[in-house]
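TASK: fixed-backbone design
INPUT:
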């Protein structure tokens, strides 16, 4: 996954700004660079957090429906007018997770057909790289932040990332937001000393990649700076908490009295990094990661205890997969290390991975939820894995696997893996996973 902080000044769009864009040449270059990066990643879905759509003080807004159109007609630029299809499956999953975790959300068609400028401006530059005209080649999810506490904003961001993982979507997240609107006395909103202070603090966090530090910015400075990006930035921090972040700060300027900051965040999932590093170290040296090497990994890996499956693919084909339904170690850090090595060396279906193969391997780490009894009509191949048991025989299949499209297929494969005849009287359990790719 990749993530971005981008501003949304309509004046940056040539159809609106005309010759004025010469005054923000750094921002124009940064938009182009970020757009190039996104187009190169070629996401299936762009999740965009914008503060200029429907916005509630006590709930997050998610645009519902088939899609919407976006232009800058209110800024005297009705063209280009682009249609964006909504990723309804991902929207549904975010809304469902919010319900399960008691995060207030308004999943509504109100305002869903008109894409606001907070989304249109960044998407305009992305579309230039696709050389498209009136229909985007990707789907979008459009979410508005709220005025709820930082902790709730942070949790909402995490649920967005979890939903992306649950549906297996190749996605990017854009936190669209301008910085302080009070940078110049002759600007549209005037000047306060807190304006530049806020922008310095925010850009320092961007450059560091420690996005959790957004919440450490002085509240008075935040409030008086008259910015519109902060809530989305905190949501982005929550979305990226499972990732090792490498920031690429592009630029900052504010010639019109409003701050425009740009940053690309390359995101390496901590679980995947751990699995990859563990197997590579073992194949090359026949030893495990040292205590010093393990210290780089965050504490949450040491605090949770769960079953884990590590699957390895090479050029799209399975190369090894080993896992545990219930935890065998004291934490997921040790669990993942052991299973990554086993997946590459002890899967009886494949020979041991060689050092020459390591650059071609792709890793997926599934952290298991607790299995629960289920009936056939309670299964969902996208959301739930399944365990079938008949006496001492047991078969398991992970959820959301390519080529497994129906519950009947899921059960048939699970029975075959467990040596169970479909005619036998077998018990069914279902489980959810947190999939890290």
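OUTPUT:
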């Amino acid at each position: 996954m990749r993530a971005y902080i981008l501003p949304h000044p309509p004046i940056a769009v040539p159809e609106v700004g005309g010759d004025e864009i010469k005054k923000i040449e750094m921002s124009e270059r940064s938009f182009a660079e970020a757009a190039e990066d996104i187009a190169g990643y070629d996401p299936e879905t762009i999740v965009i957090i914008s503060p200029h759509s429907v916005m509630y003080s006590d709930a997050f807004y998610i645009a519902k429906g088939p899609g919407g159109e976006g232009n800058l007609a209110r800024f005297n630029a009705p063209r280009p007018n682009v249609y964006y299809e909504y990723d309804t499956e991902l929207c549904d999953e975010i809304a469902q997770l919010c319900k399960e975790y008691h995060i207030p959300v308004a999943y509504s068609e109100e305002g869903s057909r008109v894409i606001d400028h907070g989304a249109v401006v960044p998407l305009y530059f992305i579309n230039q790289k696709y050389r498209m005209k009136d229909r985007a080649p990707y789907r979008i999810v459009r979410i508005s932040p709220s005025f709820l506490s930082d902790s709730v904003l942070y949790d909402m961001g995490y649920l967005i990332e979890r939903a992306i993982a649950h549906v297996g979507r190749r996605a990017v997240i854009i936190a669209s937001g301008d910085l302080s609107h009070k940078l110049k006395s002759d600007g549209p909103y005037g000047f306060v000393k807190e304006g530049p202070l806020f922008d310095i603090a925010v850009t320092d966090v961007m450059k560091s990649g420690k996005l959790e530090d957004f919440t450490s910015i002085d509240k008075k400075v935040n409030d008086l700076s008259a910015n519109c990006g902060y809530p989305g930035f905190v949501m982005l921090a929550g979305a990226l908490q499972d990732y090792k972040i490498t920031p690429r700060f592009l630029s900052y300027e504010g010639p019109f009295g409003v701050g425009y900051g740009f940053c690309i965040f390359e995101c390496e999932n901590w679980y995947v990094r751990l699995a990859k590093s563990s197997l590579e170290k073992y194949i090359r040296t026949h030893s495990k990661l040292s205590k010093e090497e393990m210290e780089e990994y965050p504490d949450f890996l040491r605090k949770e205890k769960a079953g884990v499956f590590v699957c390895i693919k090479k050029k799209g084909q399975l190369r090894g997969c080993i896992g545990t339904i219930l935890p065998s170690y004291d934490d997921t850090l040790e669990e993942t290390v052991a299973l990554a090595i086993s997946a590459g060396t002890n899967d009886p279906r494949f020979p041991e991975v060689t050092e020459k193969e390591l650059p071609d391997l792709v890793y997926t780490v599934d952290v298991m939820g607790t299995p629960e009894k289920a009936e056939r009509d309670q299964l969902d191949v996208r959301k739930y894995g399944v365990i079938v048991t008949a006496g001492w025989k047991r078969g398991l299949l992970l959820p959301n696997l390519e080529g497994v499209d129906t519950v009947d297929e899921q059960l048939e494969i699970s029975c075959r893996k467990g040596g169970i005849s479909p005619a036998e009287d077998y018990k069914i359990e279902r489980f959810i996973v947190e999939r890290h790719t």
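COMMENT: DSSP finds 13 helices and 19 strands in the chain.
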